Amino acid sequence: TIMQLHNFNSGPSILPQEVLEQAAAAIHNFNNTGLSILEIGHRSSHFVEVVTEAQTIVKRLMGLDDAYEVLFLQGGATMQFMQVPMNLLDENGLAAICDNGVWGNKAVKEAGLFGPVKVVSDTADKKHTYINKVLDIPSNATYLHITTNNTVEGTQWHSYPQTSALLIGDMSSDIFCRPTNFKQFDLIYAGAQKNMGAAGVTMVVVKKEILGKIDRKIPAILDYRKHIEAGSLLNTPPVFSIYVSLLTLRWIEAQGGLAAMEKLNLAKANLLYNTIDSSTAFHCPIAKEDRSIMNAVFFLTDTSKEEAFLALCKKEGMIGVKGYRTVGGIRVSMYNALPYSSVEAFCDLMKSFAEKI
Ligand code: PMP
């Protein structure tokens, strides 16, 4: 018999079992075409329907109207660190950016290539264990960029800052984890490989009216307007990754949409954080109000026991729980597709480990 695995990977990460089965079937025979999803033309009606349905579901889940466009691009969320300022920022503007960890820091560095940047929050003073919500945003800021969930550090914005500047959100690690007012944002991006599907595609949701305000010459492949004109088919897109996103989007709706995701995610996060907080063997340094419901970062009180705990996790089939290399400790990622029972199994293991030390 194969041991049951519990997949807490931070990304690429767990996907719903049905999605894997449907994706596997489509590799052999896509929609009864007799062809594999890997063999069909990206401009065929079959694939255009895939893109269109995925865009429709995204807008429905987010409650967005035609003021917004949904694009499926390549280059990862990392490309968005430069594509956003390339399309929106010039020397006359100003990018206000929150540096709340590894990923926000990259957004700061890349924006600096295109125009002035002001870091309006830098939480390095407390090792990024909290979110600074009081931001001094200059009145001439073009946009405010936040990382809505700090995947590495384990913090998450639970309500978003108010600003007269455009609001840009890197939602790579918490997209579709709960309902929110997505209309607060002017541009949202997310790598698909956590809550949305397979690696290889990045979703960008952009309010059309914010584009075309600067004079820079933008290469076509990096120009959001060109992708919009081409219906997200400017060049050959990552066909299979987009299809897996469509299957995952359908799955989210079938589960009851974002409200259902939130209910499950809160139950998992509450169980895990309560287990940590009520144990003397573990501790979570993240400010309670800023804790991420997607990625829980915590430590063993006696750090010399960390290796033994990780070895036990490995033995018991708990995958991907070692903290990020610069942070250390334990990181448990609980994306949408992770069942409650996996968090229960992990908490039982924590309790039995704590009893023995
Ligand atoms: N932003 C966030 C919040 C992330 O978690 C990551 C990594 N998964 C990235 C950006 C970079 O994403 P990618 O590897 O898709 O470029």
Q: Helix tally?
A: 9
Structural class: alpha/beta
Roughly what is the average pLDDT, rounded to an integer? 98
The set of bound ligands, ions and cofactors reads: 4'-deoxy-4'-aminopyridoxal-5'-phosphate
* Through-space gap between termini: 30 Å
Secondary-structure element order, N to C = EHHEHEHEEEEEEEHHHEEHEEH
Please give the radius of gyration in angstroms: 21 Å
Total beta-strand segments? 14
In the sheet with the most strands, the strands line up as 2-10-9-8-5-3-4
Major sheet size, sense and barrel closure: 7 strands, mixed
In terms of DSSP E residues, the strand content is 15-25%
Share in helix: 25-40%
* Cα shape: globular
Q: Which consecutive residue ranges, at least 5 long each, have pLDDT under 50? A: none
Assembly type of the chains comes to single chain
Blueprint of the fold:
Layout: E1 6-7, H1 17-28, H2 45-62, E2 68-73, H3 76-88, E3 95-99, H4 102-111, E4 117-122, E5 143-147, E6 149-150, E7 155-156, E8 166-170, E9 187-191, E10 202-207, H5 224-229, H6 239-255, H7 257-277, E11 282-283, E12 295-300, H8 306-315, E13 318-319, E14 330-333, H9 340-356
Parallel strand pairs: 1-13, 3-4, 3-5, 5-8, 8-9
Antiparallel strand pairs: 2-10, 6-7, 9-10, 11-12, 12-14
The chain binds 4'-deoxy-4'-aminopyridoxal-5'-phosphate (PMP).
4'-deoxy-4'-aminopyridoxal-5'-phosphate is lined by residues 11, 76-78, 103, 147, 151, 170, 172-173, 191.
